[in-house]
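Quick one: structure for this chain?
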Amino acid sequence: MGIKEEVRQAVGKVMDPEIMMTMEDLGLIYGIEENDGKVTIEMTLTTPGCPLGAMLANQVKQEALKVEGVNDAEVKVVFSPPWDPRKMASQKAKLMLGLL
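Got it. Here's what it folds into:
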């Protein structure tokens, strides 16, 4: 498994404390790039005004830094495309959110 996949697994386990689901299940991790040990992670939030946004971004960064081979991590919080759980969340999350 490559660094990008390991980072995706690590950061995907970060829990959204309000919804109590993982970032991966919610579909909040948009992309991960890696270049010579530095990873850049694009993520979003369930709402642009999420009061826990900075905390979640920091947790994602800290989890990425734990992955062997990662020596620097940058997290970019983006809102394009806007998060839509009907399209981006896992089946498990959709079920828990009452979307199925």
